[in-house]
Amino acid sequence: MQLCNENIESVYVMPGFLNFEHDCLTILRRSMIAVAPEEGCALLLGNQKNSAIFPKKIIWNVSLIWPCCNAWEPGFFNLDHRSICLSLGSEQKLTRENRFALDPREQLLAQRWARANNLEIIGTAHSHPEGDAYVSDTDLRWGMSPGLMVIVAKNQLVRAWWKNDSQSNQLQPVQLAHSS
Ligand SMILES: [Zn+2]
User: Fold this and answer.
1) Which CATH number is 5-174 given?
2) Could you tell me the distance, in angstroms and rounded to a whole number, from the CA of residue 56 to the centre of ligand 1?
3) Lesser CB count within 10 Å: N end or C end of the chain?
4) pTM score, two decimals?
5) CA distances from 104 to 70, 127, 155, 158 (A)
6) Which of 88-102, 105-119, 131-145 has the lowest mean pLDDT?
7) For residue 88, is pLDDT > 70?
8) Could you state, in order of their start, the residue ranges of all structural domains in the chain?
């Protein structure tokens, strides 16, 4: 994942739970299926609230899925594409089928819309059309940004992950309030 951090307020601590309101989970899955075999990506818009059941936990509510075009292409992040391909230790070619990028302009647009509607961008989502819902080596090597990242697997299973800071690659699973 690559998130344009200067555009996203990172004032959060790890969510206690992640809750998809309304039919957000269905919309997320369908928007990812729609672009398969390429990886799909989306921004998660919502807000935080205190849990009524667990007072010390903060629930992050996703109330709107903002599907994005996968803007990945070699050189998107001005990184040395070839050296990273080699560092993956294989002949793996990075394409939109195993890599995604969010367009910073789309993030800005979503952020403006979110603010106007009393929401915030609380994380990102992307799919692994041929894989599981765990953070991949490719995600890590291309500089996964701190914060919340949701992954939709080939079998439509959804998992959420939290990364504390940009220095480490330590990830913590985030519990979904409703697993469906
Ligand atoms: Zn990934």
Assistant:
1) 3.40.140.10
2) 31
3) C
4) 0.84
5) 11, 19, 29, 24
6) 88-102
7) no
8) 5-174
